[in-house]
Amino acid sequence: MQVYHRDAIERTVGIDQAALRAVEAGFAALGRGEVVQPPILSMAIEEANGEVDVKTAHIRGAERFAIKVSSGFFDNPQLGLPSLNGLMLAFSARTGLVEAVLFDEGYLTMVRTALAGAIAAKHLSRETSHRVTVLGAGEQAERQVQALRLVRDLDTLDVWARRREAAQAYAERMRATGLAVNVHDDMAEACASADIIITATPSRTPLLEARDLPVGVHVTAMGSDSPEKRELDASVLTRADAFVCDSRSQSENNGELKAFAGGEVPFKVHELGRVIAEGQRLRLTDDTLTVCDLTGLGVQDTAIASFALSRLLSG
């Protein structure tokens, strides 16, 4: 059994085309019905303002599978500690023996989450998209744009965040990557010229409304990953010409389909894996409005862990 720490993993795995192909292949396998994926195991540790999630999946025929344990203890910054942590355990799919412990401290989760956003945009946004709006100014706000540039030729970034100082700091970091960046105090103004909108916040109340959406925009919502969080008003979902999620059951429990809890969803729900596996073309014209809700899947963790371990073992 091998043990790898974050520094070695970071040197080996990045947000690049090879990693994107690995995660995209995981989604496609899910869409073909080739994945065993149990529900997320979640546990709250309320007295420490913490939570722990366990995700896993097996891709039939794959050499290995992974189990990921991720923790979020949100008072940690007051102690000088990171709020997010975790590791992945890689097992042989033939013998069940542990092959490696990837003590990545959440790094691989960050990578696969960013790549999922790029994969959604690859299949749902206009190919000519060059202007992206990001709501949020944290790490995923940065990484989502980095990954998106693998599939779209971006030149302009508009940003809105609850704290203007955070938006300004984010803008400076992103200008260093060669993008023209505009900071907005008004969210509707930030979205007005977007080809793609990314919501990357921990919001517990809807932020984005249908009236904020320009014609033909693609929206990727990736912040709602627990029953308490919401980023999209129900009007965004009902206005969409095509609504896609990574998992309908997870979206209903953790994601944006919670907006219709207890009632019938008034539109067709597509899953990203099937869109990829079946080559579905949901964007019929440049005016088609698409929305994708990403809650994070165990198959993404198995895909990125297997990719990482293969590179570590060969390098």
What would you say about this model in short?
InterPro entries: NAD(P)-bd_dom_sf, ODC_Mu_crystall, ODC_N. This protein is of the alpha/beta class. The chain has ten helices and 15 strands.
Tell me the span between the first and last alpha carbons: 16 Å
What is the mean pLDDT? 96
Spatial strand order of the main sheet: 10-9-8-11-12-15-13-14
CATH superfamily label of the largest domain: NAD(P)-binding Rossmann-like Domain
Kindly state the percentage of residues in helix: 25-40%
Shape: globular
CATH topology of the largest domain: Rossmann fold
CATH class of the largest domain: Alpha Beta
Uncertain stretches: none
Task: Kindly name the structural category.
Answer: alpha/beta
Determine Rg (CA atoms, Å): 19 Å
Number of helices: 10
Please describe the biggest sheet, giving its number of strands, its sense, and whether it closes into a barrel: 8 strands, parallel
Beta-strand proportion: 25-35%
Number of structural domains: 2
